[in-house]
Structure formats: structure tokens, C-alpha cells
Design goal:
The complex is a heterodimer.
Chain A lengths: L1 H20 L4 H16 L4 H22 L1 H26 L8 H14 L3 H6 L10 H24 L4 H21 L26 H24 L2 H11 L1 H6 L4 H27 L9 H14 L4 H31 L3 E2 L2 E2 L13 H15 L8 H7 L1
Antiparallel strand pairs in A: 1-2
Helix pairs in contact in A: 1-2, 1-3, 3-4, 3-9, 4-9, 4-12, 4-13, 4-14, 5-7, 5-8, 5-12, 7-12, 9-12, 10-12, 13-14, 13-15
Chain B lengths: L4 H6 L1 H29 L6 H22 L7 H28 L8 H26 L4 E2 L9 E3 L5 E3 H23 L1 H11 L1 H6 L4 H27 L1 E2 L5 H14 L4 H25 L9 H15 L14
Antiparallel strand pairs in B: 1-4, 2-3
Classes of the chains: A mainly alpha, B mainly alpha.
Chain lengths: 396, 325
């Protein structure tokens, strides 16, 4: 135990120093992220575990951000996807409803703030009342949550009677409908400004922090709330009803679980997390267009949930982190590195890298990554990397 | 609102023809979904990539012939037969491999597990095609070289004409649907396929090699998808690795529309959806005075899917698959 405690603390400190010494090294930052996982898994007292994680996320991460602002951006993105993965985890992991159009709720949240929080509102509704004052942002976190939850219920009502695989395709269709609408509702009324997107979207008052730090802390706060809500939901009455529905609908119904009610709640809960994050995403990006809300994003979030383990909260957090970092850092880093080698005229086994086709951009192969994650996990480890405790007990 | 009635009537035959071509395309793709669903009760989400892989094999052969300088010298039926066969063979084999690698290990798992795997295969293949073409041609947006002899147009009336290409696409699709119909309903192999679809355990007790039949189902469905891909390329020209996704989704809609698992249903569903879409694309803008344009045709197709699933999940001709409790 003491050995674990010392090792975990040392690793965290060392990796933090490593990032400070080599602020541009992707490996150092990966080491830092890995050390967080080690701390989480190490056999140390809980106060030490959460203390270390708290220090790492609240103190070390902003300091790292001061050395290399991009890392703070990565951490913020990770946070956004953690919240999305946790939301989808309720629908897919707990209730067992495969939702392939999850990003639609994210879009609903994002557009709700984008329209009212930018001058575009004047074009959509006339007048000169928009953008709303920045503090409205916080109200819109709740409004986005509500609107997304309502659209979750609206989608859920007609489709919940369907078999699982049909449900998946219908949610996929729903996601595409939302995207096509966002793309085309620039006429007859210009609501979304079509493919050109909406900008500039107001940001909340920054309280003296830089926007990078501000959004990092805001996302962290929301993620903590989301994790706590998830923890409470999991062991609650409704959480157990969801898992009963997932395992066997008939049996659940026979035991008195109201099927439609439970499924609707799952849709609404999952959607509401996405809605909140959508509002935040819109403010963070300042600019949104339909390209941010494609089927690819839905599958990306699904891959996060599957990788970590369906129904598992730590799994969703881990999955979201790994996939986001893979996309933002590893693929891009590999791309940059390859380009440097190309420009330096390096040859490998007599083949000059400068002859590599220009259209071969390794950063663009995120679909391949998502695809491999989904197939390999389904075949070799369907319970995920960090399986849900209840499932572990069932299988063990 | 002013409506140009003569214009609406004038374009009608042309729209009808477009709809029929699109419909046969959907029907050919839908067969792959419906046959696999009939046998395994499983949505082969990656069928859209089987389809586009066929289109890529076709374009590679055409480009190869063109670079060799023989494309214009060969008679078009020969070239077309060559690319159709090659596309069908490649797509069929791809489908069989896919089943062996990604689906067979998951047989018997809960319904959603193989579906998630299929989504993964679909995404993987899209980028694999992109990777191969990027390395090979340094471009993954390819255009079918035009074959002049196929672009001959026949004037039916003063305003309506039809290209030889369109007739060839319709003819080829009809021929393939006919062959498939005979194969499934009149041959011994077809009886075996239907037996496996009905009850796998009983079929295997009757001495049918169930795994072999499942592979064969994927082979046939994949070959149909590959043929559709080649015809799609010949008809519409431009393809890229992601082109297959939306037609695939619509073909799935067609399969559900006709009643999934039901082969004639897939043909009917494909035609109905193709016609609906063609008319939506041409008339929506005219009827609403430009407020809603052809962009909404995708929404139209998905709405059809959602409505049919809610109100008549067995499809127009009835679902062949039995509902599992």
C-alpha cells in the first residue's frame, strides 16, 4: 500500500515535471495522462487517490496549460467528450438502447445558445435584442438541457416500441434529419444560417481568467457534476430499472418496471447532458456550423462508451479520454512527424518518404480508428476496458 | 402562389424515368440487406461499403483500360460485362470475408453486439478504401471515364429523351433481379437458403451446411451490392469512399419499406422509394415556391423510414422474419 502510494505520487510528479521540461513533447503529456490512470487504479487510500487527482486536475493541469496552451485545449475537449460519453452511457450502457444519432442533442443545445447568443438572432426573429447579455449563458445551460431533454422525449415517444436494431437505425435517421435541417433552415426563415454557420457567439463573463483556463474549469465543474449525477442514478430506483430493461425487457415488465417511462427517462437524461455540453461548446468555439454534428461524431462517442465499457462510469471517462487524445494528439502528431520526415528527405528501406502521396493524411483516418475500436472490442472484450462493477460481478 | 402547371406536367416523364433508375439501384442494394436479415436477423450495416467497393473496382478497371488506350476500341457490352463481373466478384468476396472475420465470432450474442461490430466494419472500410486509393492514385474522389457509345440518347418525344446508359442500367438491374428470383425459388441452393432462414437448427439436422449457406447468402447479397455499385458509377459518375453511406441507408429503408427478409419486397420498396425521392427532389421546390428545395429529399426518405417503422413495421409486402419474443 505504501509502495503504491509512493509510486503513484512519484509518477504523477515526475510526469508533471516531464511536461514542464518538454512542453512540446506529446509523449510527456501522454505520460501525464497515463499517470492519472495509474493513480486511479493504484491500491492507495481513497483520500490520497482523490487528493492526487484533484491536485493534478485543479493545479497541475492549468500550470501545464501555461507552458503549452494547446494541452489545456485538449483537456477541455476531453472534458466535453467525457460528458457526452457519460450521457450516451446512460442510454446505451444502462438502458441498452443503441442511439446512433446522439450528436443531434448536442446540436440542439449548441444551436439554442448560438441563435440567441449571437447577432444572428436579429436576423432570425427581427429586432435588435440579440445577442443576449453574456450572463444569459448560464441560464442557457439550463435551457439547453431542457430543450435537449424535450427533444429526447419527442424522439423517444414514437420509436420506443421498436426492436433494438430498428431503434438504432431510426435514431440514426433522426440525427441525419437534424443535420440536414441545420444545413437548410436558412430559408424560408433564416434560423441556422445553413452551412455557413453562426458566428460570433457570445462567451460568458470570464472572471479574470483567460478563456482557455475559464472553459477548462467550467468543463471540469460540469464533468464532476455529471459524474456525481451518474453515480447517484446508477444505484437509484430508475438506474436499476434501466439495467433490468437492458437485460430482459419482458422480465423487467413482469417485475413492474414501466417500460415506456423508463426508456423515455433514459433518452431524456442522456440527451440533457448533451444539451448542456452543446451550449458550452457553442460558447467555447464562438462559431458553429452543421459540420460539427455529423454521424461521425455520434459514432465517435459510441466508440468511447464501447471502449471503456458499456454501463461503466470510469469506463466512459477513460474511453472518452483515450479516443479524444488519439484523435487530437496521436493522429495529428503522427501526421506532423511524417511531414517533418518527408521535408527532411528521409528514406526508409530505400524508399524516399518525399514520394509519399500528398493525399495521404494520417490525421484524417479517425473513422478507421473508431471502426477498429468497435469491431475489436465487440469480438475480444465486449465488456470494455474498465467493465461496470455489476457486470464484473455477474461475469466473475 | 403561382404554379406553372404545364411545367409540372412537362417534366413528369423525365422524373418518372429518373425515379425508376434510382429505384432499381436501391432495389439491388436492398437485396443485400434483406437476404442477410432474412437468414441472420441482423442488419449488415457495412453493406453500403460493399456497394461502394464494387463501384471502385469498376472505376479502377475502366481507368486501367483507358490508360492502356483500349477503352474506346472495345465494344461497350463487353466492357460493361467485364466491370460488372469484376465488381460483383470483389464485393461478394468482401462480404464473405467480412462475415467470417467480424460477424461469425459474434453469432448468438445479443442483437446489438453484431450491429455495433457492423458499424465498425463500415467505418473501417470507408477509410481503408480511402487509404488504398490515396496511396495508389493520390486521390480518392474518382470519376468514371465516360463511354461515348453509352451516352447516345433516344428521343421519345420532343421533350423527353432517354440515354442508352439509363436503358442499360435498368436492363442489367432487371436481369439480375430475375436471376436472383430464380436462384432463390427454383434451385436446390435457394431451397437451402430459405430453409436456413426458416430455422437454422432444423436445417442443419436436414444435412444443410448452415455456415456454408450463410457465407453464400453474404456472397450473393454482396455481389448484388457490387453490381449496384458499378451501375451507380456508370450512371452518376463521381464516387468517393463515403458516397455509399447515404444510398446504403436509403436502400435499407427500401428493404424495410418492402418488408425486411422479403426479396420481392426489396424490389418493390426500392422502386417506391426511388420514385418518391425523384418526385420529392423535382417537385418540392416547384410546389413550395422555392422555400423547400431538393436538399430535403434525404429528410423525405428518412421520414418514410420512421413512419413505416412506427405504423407498419412489417413493411408493404409483409416481413418474412418471425418476431422473436
Amino acid at each position: 500500500m505504501i509502495l503504491h502510494a509512493v509510486a503513484a505520487t512519484a509518477l504523477l510528479a515526475l510526469s508533471g515535471i516531464a511536461v514542464a521540461v518538454f512542453p512540446r513533447s506529446i509523449l510527456a503529456f501522454l505520460l501525464f495522462q497515463g499517470s492519472l490512470l495509474v493513480v486511479y487504479l493504484a491500491r492507495i487510500p481513497n483520500w490520497l487517490r482523490w487528493g492526487l487527482l484533484g491536485v493534478a486536475l485543479l493545479v497541475l493541469m492549468p500550470i501545464i496549460g501555461a507552458y503549452n496552451g494547446y494541452y489545456l485545449e485538449v483537456a477541455t475537449q476531453v472534458g466535453i467528450f467525457v460528458a457526452l460519453a457519460l450521457g450516451l452511457n446512460i442510454v446505451v450502457g444502462l438502458a441498452g438502447l443503441l442511439d446512433l444519432g446522439y450528436v443531434a442533442f448536442f446540436a440542439v443545445g449548441a444551436y439554442s445558445w448560438a441563435i440567441f447568443g449571437s447577432p444572428h438572432g436579429n436576423i432570425a426573429f427581427g429586432g435588435a435584442a440579440f445577442p443576449l447579455a453574456p450572463p444569459w449563458f448560464f441560464a442557457f445551460l439550463l435551457i439547453g438541457l431542457t430543450v435537449a431533454a424535450i427533444s429526447g422525449v419527442l424522439l423517444g415517444l414514437p420509436v420506443l416500441r421498436l426492436r433494438g436494431d430498428y431503434l438504432a437505425i431510426v435514431t440514426l435517421g433522426f440525427g441525419e434529419v437534424i443535420r440536414v435541417l441545420a444545413n437548410n433552415l436558412d430559408k424560408p426563415i433564416n434560423l441556422t444560417n445553413g452551412p455557413k454557420g453562426i458566428t460570433p457567439i457570445s462567451r460568458p463573463p470570464a472572471l479574470g481568467l483567460s478563456y482557455g483556463e475559464y472553459f477548462y474549469f467550467l468543463v471540469l465543474l460540469i464533468v464532476v457534476v455529471v459524474v456525481l449525477v451518474n453515480r447517484r442514478l446508477e444505484d437509484s430506483h430508475i438506474g436499476r430499472a434501466w439495467e433490468a430493461v437492458r437485460e430482459d425487457e419482458m422480465a423487467a415488465q413482469a417485475m413492474g418496471v414501466p417500460l415506456v417511462h423508463a426508456k423515455l427517462l433514459a433518452f431524456a437524461c442522456g440527451a440533457s447532458f448533451a444539451g448542456v455540453m452543446g451550449v458550452l461548446f457553442a460558447a467555447k468555439q464562438v462559431f458553429i456550423n452543421p459540420e460539427s454534428f455529423t454521424f461521425l461524431e455520434s459514432i465517435g462517442v459510441l466508440a468511447m462508451v464501447i471502449l471503456g465499457g458499456m454501463g461503466s462510469i470510469p469506463g466512459a471517462v477513460l474511453g472518452a479520454t483515450v479516443v479524444t487524445v488519439l484523435n487530437l494528439q496521436v493522429l495529428k502528431g503522427f501526421s506532423l512527424w511524417l511531414n517533418e520526415l518527408k521535408n527532411a528527405g528521409v528514406t526508409v528501406l530505400g524508399y524516399s518518404l518525399a514520394d509519399l502521396p500528398t493525399q495521404l493524411e494520417p490525421a484524417k483516418y479517425e473513422r478507421m480508428i473508431f471502426g477498429m475500436i468497435l469491431v475489436l472490442m465487440m469480438i475480444f472484450r465486449p465488456q470494455g476496458i474498465l467493465p461496470a462493477r455489476r457486470r464484473q460481478r455477474e461475469l466473475g | 402562389m403561382h404554379m406553372d402547371i404545364p411545367l409540372l406536367i412537362g417534366i413528369f416523364p423525365q422524373v418518372l424515368l429518373d425515379g425508376i433508375i434510382l429505384g432499381f439501384m436501391y432495389a439491388l442494394i436492398a437485396l443485400g440487406y434483406t437476404m442477410v436479415y432474412g437468414v441472420l436477423e441482423f442488419i449488415n450495416f457495412a453493406h453500403s461499403e460493399i456497394f461502394i467497393a464494387g463501384a471502385f473496382v469498376g472505376v479502377e478497371i475502366l481507368l486501367g483500360l483507358k490508360q492502356a488506350g483500349v477503352l474506346d476500341g472495345l465494344p461497350w457490352p463487353l466492357v460493361l460485362a467485364l466491370i460488372l463481373l469484376a465488381g460483383m466478384a470483389a464485393s461478394g468476396l468482401l462480404a464473405v470475408t467480412m462475415e467470417r472475420v467480424a460477424y461469425r465470432p459474434l453469432r448468438g450474442a445479443p442483437r446489438l453486439i453484431p450491429l455495433i461490430s457492423a458499424i465498425g466494419v463500415s467505418f473501417f472500410l470507408q477509410d481503408l478504401i480511402r487509404l488504398v486509393e490515396s496511396v495508389w492514385r493520390n486521390s480518392f474522389n474518382l470519376v468514371y471515364p465516360s463511354m461515348d457509345s453509352l451516352n447516345v440518347r433516344f428521343e421519345l418525344t420532343e421533350t423527353i429523351d432517354v440515354s442508352l446508359k439509363a436503358l442499360v442500367v435498368i436492363g442489367a438491374a432487371l436481369a439480375m433481379l430475375g436471376v436472383l428470383h430464380i436462384l432463390v425459388n427454383r434451385t436446390k441452393v435457394g431451397t437451402a437458403i430459405r430453409a436456413v432462414a426458416e430455422d437454422q437448427a432444423a436445417a442443419s439436422l436436414m444435412g444443410i451446411n448452415v455456415n456454408g449457406i450463410i457465407s453464400l447468402t453474404f456472397l450473393i447479397g454482396g455481389a448484388m451490392g457490387g453490381a449496384a455499385g458499378v451501375l451507380f458509377g456508370v450512371q452518376y459518375g463521381l464516387i468517393n469512399p463515403y458516397t455509399g453511406f447515404i444510398p446504403g441507408l436509403k436502400a435499407f429503408t427500401a428493404a424495410v419499406l418492402g418488408g425486411i427478409g422479403n426479396i420481392p419486397g426489396a424490389m418493390v420498396g426500392g422502386l417506391v422509394l426511388g420514385l418518391l425521392e425523384a418526385f420529392a427532389a423535382s417537385y418540392l421546390s416547384l410546389l413550395t415556391g422555392g422555400a423547400f428545395g431538393a436538399e430535403y429529399k434525404d429528410i423525405f426518405a428518412f421520414s418514410v423510414l420512421i413512419l413505416i417503422l412506427i405504423f407498419r413495421p412489417k413493411g408493404l409486402l409483409g416481413e418474412v422474419v418471425r418476431e422473436r419474443a
